[in-house]
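Thread: Newbie trying to understand structure tokens

Hi all, I'm a second-year student working on a class project, and my supervisor (Dr. K.) asked me to get a predicted structure for one chain before our next meeting. I've only ever worked with sequences, so writing a 3D structure as a token string is new to me. If someone could post the tokens and maybe explain what I'm looking at, I'd be very grateful. Here's the chain:
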Amino acid sequence: MQVLAVTLIAGIVLSVVYAAGQQAARRSMFGPLLYYSRTVADFGGLKRYQADDSALPPDATRVVFMGDSITDFWPLPQYFPGKPFINRGISGQTTSQMLVRFRQDVLDLHPRSVVIQGGANDIMGRTGPMTSDQIEANIETMAELSHALGIHVVLCSLLPVGETMWMPSDKTKIVLVNAKLRGYAAQHGYPFVNFYGAMKDPGNNLPGALSKDGIHPLPSGYAVMAPLVDAAVNGNTRKTK
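---
Reply by user tm_fold:
Sure, no problem. This is what the structure looks like when written as tokens:
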């Protein structure tokens, strides 16, 4: 009788463990599928901020942050208290997706300045293979559209990644994209915010003190980034045509 009870209990435990494992497996499989299904349904992510954009009152001092998860996860009011800084980041987006929604989420808001940061998801191939030139071209297009409307442009580097994250070739691509953006910014007189230089450790990695997962900043990481952006936004007057 005792053997039967033990066997029954063991069977129940194994069933629970198996079910939990199956549920975790389903989550791991369906997570990416859900992301890509949403991308197909709304490639540029126009729905994310559509209502918020429509509800914003005019503000000639507004600064819009356009980017991916680095921007999306940044609690701007906490790091820039009292300032009219608007977050328009969307986690997982490539610069191609950012470009699709750039008019709605930036240009139509008529901001004083735009802070543009992106490209990491391009390197990861989230919406297909992208060369460093193609990444730069998308960011250049956003900058040119902004400049044509008299919006002050601030360009930001890609961040370094953690020591165990990404392939060496991808890390090299980060450096290459940053060099291209720095050169373009210098050529056109745009401030360039060098997050990479400010946050990398001696091995050119994003240290654990600034990021838990090797990609996204901790509050300590955003604390390094905030004054750099603030200086870039306020250090130049609004550009005109």
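A couple of things are worth pointing out once you decode it. The longest helix spans residues 2-41. The chain has eleven helices and five strands. Feel free to ask follow-ups in this thread.
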